[in-house]
Write a structure and sequence with these properties.
It holds the Pfam family DUF7561. It comes from Natrinema halophilum. With about 80 residues, the protein is α+β, with helices and mostly antiparallel strands. Helix content is about 25%, strand content about 30%. It has helices spanning about 20-25, 30, 50-55, 60-65; strands at about 1-5, 10-15, 35-40, 45-50, 70, 75-80. The longest helix has 6 residues, at about 50-55. The protein binds zinc ion. Zinc ion (ZN) binds near residues 6, 9, 11 and 51.
Amino acid sequence: MSKDSCDGCGRTVTVSGGIANLWSFGRDAGTVGTAITLELEDGTSHLLCYPCLEAIPDYPTAEDVERLEQVDGESSTLGTR
Ligand SMILES: [Zn+2]
């Protein structure tokens, strides 16, 4: 586990690493970390918290990641920058 910040909204997140986290998303989010590294089609990777992962499209681009904004403690949204 390590402390880091979300590439989208900047919220502080904990990362336990590994694709395995995907499978526990929604059930053990509090114990396995609050963010995962998302690899985009263009080859870049971004650390995103779960609220941001819910806010971005199914096939996000780096532009989508940049538009992510924190709404409150538990949700994020895409801004219109
Ligand atoms: Zn975020």
